[in-house]
């Protein structure tokens, strides 16, 4: 028989406000096995924990029930307390009387009654608890970074600088991501390429970093410290080890009319291409959909001009399997499609562009060599209208756009407006805004400079519609301060499109069993206290895959994710979770139901000899669980028809005892 | 009817929650009848929300709204200003206490092209 101590926490007024904690402690005294019961204001405090340790020694307790907050919050705390008192840490059960009781009930009698019932269930469970010892697993000292934008680059550099090998997997032919497409960066206006490309070179030259460009992750197995990842290296039809990046093939390629993704489709590239001058790796890639040699077997010009003999039309997709200890997701963002915003005439006029397209138009390496020219006729625009919040801050019921604020648009629009006025003082620039949100270091000062020093016309109100007429864009908008409807004949309109997570994020989250929110942003383990960790152990988050972020924030999060990875890879062994499944071989009928439902592949079947009561030997097929792989989800225990599978710490008998205690 | 009750009634009748408005002005930006109106769509939303409905009841703006629903279509918050205008308009029409349309008037007005929906909505608008 256990000697159980019950400790009821007030959590200040969080619990004590709607639960009569003294009555709970009193009621639980009468439960079988309970020899001591008390309450305290903050059980998790040092004084509260000492109270528990003293009680264990004084009353010779063998099991503890803590009636407090969610086990997610403080189960680990109280397990440590139990260990400090000389108990096995798994002799502790938490009755969640805060999140599942005091916070959801308003009246004291209801809250108290439910708290007592939850306490009784926990006592019934502890009566059947046994000591558990966690196993250990080794750590593969190598990290995987998925995504090669500024987030992935910074994370990889920080991990590699600490001495651990890192692989970057990037779907595009080059690393660099969105930042490589930008012209200047706010609020200091340094050129994006000038600060990014040295980092890209650092990555390329780092002896601890490998880059898998034009590649994607196709399968993830295993668990923290021991991930088995399959990476698909897409055929680029160019031998990376031989290509020198000279660009002769690009010049000679006759198929030159393919939309250039790097310039947002505003100019063309050849079928064999290098995305931009500073690409890393600087290796050509053949677009299989555009190349006549690959489609029809005719041409082969690139192969003829290639001095290095790097062209290989027979190249196939290659699958690489590698082991990793930690995975960092850095899949980034994209601007949303403007399809649902017909009122802005994006699809009707080439002169209505998104902000990312504007970046390319003003970039010296862009389609116009940095001259601001209208995409339709190449003329210099004089009246330019910027529209903010296109697709951001939309109600779900409006069925278009995103509910969140995209965070970066206010600042980059101020940057675009300011730079336009600076370079072309003959332009009239209008910015239509709902609110200007500039909560960053030197951000509001930057926006005020655009207004006060550069004469950008900021107008509070939205644009209602844009109609292309002749060579102007008729912009109809609200000026809410003057209570007027404005009509502007603009030459160029720039839409600050909302941003959304990259499309690759959703299937990746499924592979990683990492959780996402309704917008497909990855969820953090705790929004405030564990912002760079996914709830899935060993998976970390970096950059805009977790939420909209500007470059400084992305870089700080990248560093934070790297430090978490380094902390994990420094360990030689990881302590596992002892609450894992095990099969009772005598009861197992060999049906394989458990093997089929196990999401981790932890269950295998083998033939074993059994000595029967009549002294004969029988060979039976039975299940066994690999303790290093089992994550304790319990799916097998539900699937097992004979009751042979049981989850330690959550045995069938313990669960039934809890249910009985609640229903009594 | 006092100010508060009128606000509640208009909100109930229109099914519009003016609190959803984020005051971006896209409704007024898109309104084709803007210049005809004394009170513009975004003002309608705000005035109903603050209970300042009296001026709206007496304004010609009620009848200038074309019910084109451009504001409803484009509102990023799904506020549906045109429905609010319609609800305010109804409260004026109904206040007059007269039957502007009786079933006896119908046969004379009928022709093959008249959709049934028009009759139903006409009854809703013009009958006490």
Question: What secondary-structure arrangement, pairings included, does this model have?
Answer:
The complex is a heterodimer of chains A (664) and B (128).
Chain A: E1 4-9, H1 13-16, H2 21-28, E2 34-40, H3 46-59, E3 63-68, H4 71-84, E4 92-96, H5 98-102, H6 108-126, E5 136-138, E6 143-146, H7 150-161, E7 166-169, E8 184-185, E9 190-191, H8 192-205, E10 209-212, E11 215-223, E12 226-233, H9 248-252, E13 258-259, E14 268-269, E15 272-273, E16 285-286, H10 292-296, H11 301-305, E17 318-324, E18 326-329, E19 333-335, E20 352-354, H12 355-362, E21 383-390, H13 409-423, E22 428-433, H14 443-452, E23 457-460, E24 463-469, E25 472-479, E26 484-490, E27 492-497, E28 499-501, H15 505-512, E29 539-541, H16 551-569, E30 573-575, E31 581-583, H17 593-597, E32 603-611, E33 617-625, H18 635-639, E34 645-647, H19 652-663
Parallel strand pairs in A: 1-2, 1-3, 3-4, 6-7, 6-18, 7-10, 18-29, 20-27, 21-22, 21-27, 22-23
Antiparallel strand pairs in A: 5-30, 8-9, 11-12, 12-17, 13-14, 15-16, 19-28, 24-25, 25-26, 31-34, 32-33
Helix pairs in contact in A: 2-6, 3-4, 6-19, 7-8, 7-16, 13-14
Chain B: H1 3-14, H2 26-30, H3 41-50, H4 54-57, H5 61-64, H6 70-74, H7 81-95, H8 106-109, H9 116-126
Key traits:
A: alpha/beta, Rossmann fold, FAD/NAD(P)-binding domain, 5 domains, 5-stranded parallel β-sheet, 19 helices, 34 strands, B: 128 residues, mainly alpha, 2 domains, 9 helices, 55% helix
Textual characterization of the structure:
- In chain A, strand 32 (603-611) and strand 33 form a beta hairpin.
- The mean pLDDT of chain A is 95.
- By secondary structure, chain A is of the alpha/beta class.
- Chain A has a 5-stranded parallel beta sheet with strand order 10-7-6-18-29, covered by helices on one side. Chain A has a 5-stranded parallel beta sheet with strand order 20-27-21-22-23. Chain A has a 4-stranded parallel beta sheet with strand order 2-1-3-4, sandwiched between helices.
- Chain A is globular, with a radius of gyration of 31 Å.
- Chain A folds into 5 domains: 4-126, Rossmann fold, CATH 3.40.50; 144-229 and 317-332 and 505-569, 3-Layer(bba) Sandwich (FAD/NAD(P)-binding domain); 248-305, no CATH class; 334-500, FAD/NAD(P)-binding domain (3-Layer(bba) Sandwich), CATH 3.50.50.60; 581-648, Alpha-Beta Plaits.
- Chain A is built from 19 helices and 34 strands.
- Chain A starts with a strand and ends with a helix.
- Chain B has 128 residues and is mainly alpha-helical.
- Chain B folds into 2 domains: 3-95, Alpha-helical ferredoxin (Fumarate Reductase Iron-sulfur Protein, Chain B, domain 2, Orthogonal Bundle), CATH 1.10.1060.10; 100-128.
- Chain B contains 9 helices and no strands.
- Chain B has helices at residues 3-14, 26-30, 41-50, 54-57, 61-64, 70-74, 81-95, 106-109, 116-126.
- In chain B, helix 3 (41-50) packs across helix 7 (81-95).
- The A-B interface holds A 343, 389, 393-401, 434, 460-465, 476-480, 483, 485 and B 20, 22-31, 34-35, 40, 42-43, 70, 74-78.
């Amino acid at each position: 028989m256990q000697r159980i101590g019950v400790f009821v926490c007030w959590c200040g007024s969080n619990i004590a406000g709607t639960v009569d904690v003294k009555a709970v402690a009193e009621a639980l005294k009468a439960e079988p096995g309970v020899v001591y019961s008390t309450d305290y204001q903050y059980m998790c405090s040092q004084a509260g924990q000492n109270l528990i340790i003293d009680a264990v020694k004084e009353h010779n307790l063998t099991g503890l029930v803590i009636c407090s907050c969610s086990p997610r919050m403080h189960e680990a705390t109280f397990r440590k307390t139990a260990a400090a008192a000389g108990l096995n840490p798994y002799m502790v059960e938490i009755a969640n009387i805060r999140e599942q009781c005091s916070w959801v009930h308003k009246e004291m009698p209801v809250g108290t009654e439910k708290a007592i019932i939850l306490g009784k269930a926990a006592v019934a469970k502890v009566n059947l608890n046994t000591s558990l010892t966690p196993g250990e697993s080794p750590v593969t000292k190598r990290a995987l970074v998925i995504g090669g934008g500024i987030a992935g680059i910074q994370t990889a550099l920080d991990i590699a600088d600490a001495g651990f090998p890192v692989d970057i997997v990037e779907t595009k032919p080059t690393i660099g991501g969105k930042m490589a497409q930008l012209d200047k960066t706010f609020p200091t206006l340094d050129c994006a390429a000038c600060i990014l490309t040295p980092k890209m070179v650092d990555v390329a030259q780092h002896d601890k970093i490998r880059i898998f460009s034009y590649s994607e992750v196709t399968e993830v197995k295993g668990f923290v410290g021991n991930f088995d990842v399959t990476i698909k290296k897409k055929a680029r039809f160019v031998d990376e080890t031989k290509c020198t990046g000279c660009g002769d093939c690009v010049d000679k390629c006759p198929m030159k009319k393919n939309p250039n993704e790097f310039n947002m489709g505003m100019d063309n590239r050849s079928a064999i291409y290098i995305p931009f001058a500073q690409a890393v790796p600087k290796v050509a890639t053949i677009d299989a959909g555009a190349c006549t040699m690959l489609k029809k077997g005719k041409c082969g010009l690139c192969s003829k001009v290639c001095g290095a003999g790097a062209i290989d039309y027979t190249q196939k997709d290659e699958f690489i399997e590698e082991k990793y200890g930690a995975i960092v997701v850095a899949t980034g963002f994209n601007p949303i499609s403007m399809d649902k915003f017909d009122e802005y005439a994006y699809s009707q006029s080439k002169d209505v562009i998104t902000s990312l397209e504007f970046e390319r138009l003003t970039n010296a390496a862009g389609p116009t060599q940095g001259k601001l020219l209208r995409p339709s006729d190449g003329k210099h625009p004089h009246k330019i209208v910027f529209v903010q919040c296109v697709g951001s801050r939309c109600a779900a019921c409006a069925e278009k756009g995103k509910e969140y604020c995209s965070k970066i648009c206010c600042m980059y629009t101020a940057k675009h407006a300011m730079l336009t006025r600076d370079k072309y003082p003959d332009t009239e620039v209008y910015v239509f805004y709902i609110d200007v949100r500039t909560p960053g270091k030197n951000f509001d000062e930057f926006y005020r400079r655009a207004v006060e020093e550069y004469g950008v016309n900021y107008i509070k109100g939205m644009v209602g519609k844009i109609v292309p007429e002749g060579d102007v864009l008729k912009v109809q908008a609200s000026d809410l301060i003057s209570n007027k409807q404005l009509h502007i004949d603009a030459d160029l309109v720039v839409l600050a499109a909302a941003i959304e997570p990259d499309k690759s994020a959703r299937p990746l989250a499924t592979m990683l069993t990492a959780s996402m929110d309704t917008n497909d942003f990855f969820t953090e383990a705790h929004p405030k206290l564990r912002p760079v960790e996914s709830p899935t152990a060993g998976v970390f988050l970096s950059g805009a895959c977790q939420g909209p972020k500007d470059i400084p924030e992305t870089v700080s999060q990248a560093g934070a994710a790297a430090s978490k990875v380094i902390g994990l890879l420094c360990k030689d062994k990881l302590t596992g979770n002892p609450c894992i499944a095990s099969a009772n071989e005598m009861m197992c009928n060999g049906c394989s139901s458990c093997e089929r439902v196990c999401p981790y592949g932890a269950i295998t079947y083998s033939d074993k000899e059994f000595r029967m009561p009549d002294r004969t030997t029988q060979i039976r097929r039975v299940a066994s669980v690999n303790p290093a792989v089992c994550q304790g989800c319990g799916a097998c225990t539900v699937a097992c028809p004979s009751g042979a599978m049981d989850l330690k710490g959550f045995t069938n008998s313990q669960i039934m005892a809890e249910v009985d205690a609640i229903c009594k | 009817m006092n100010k508060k009750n009128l606000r509640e009634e208009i909100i109930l009748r229109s099914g519009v929650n003016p609190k959803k408005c984020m005051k971006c002005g896209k409704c007024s930006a898109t309104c084709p009848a803007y210049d005809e109106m004394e009170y513009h769509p975004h003002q309608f939303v705000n005035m109903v929300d603050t209970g300042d409905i009296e001026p709206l009841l007496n304004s010609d703006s009620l009848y200038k709204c074309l019910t084109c629903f451009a504001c409803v279509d484009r509102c990023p918050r799904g506020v549906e200003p045109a429905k609010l205008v319609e609800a305010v308009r109804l409260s004026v029409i109904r206040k007059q206490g007269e039957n502007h349309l009786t079933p006896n008037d119908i046969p004379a007005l009928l022709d093959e092209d008249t959709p049934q929906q028009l009759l139903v909505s006409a009854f809703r608008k013009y009958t006490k």
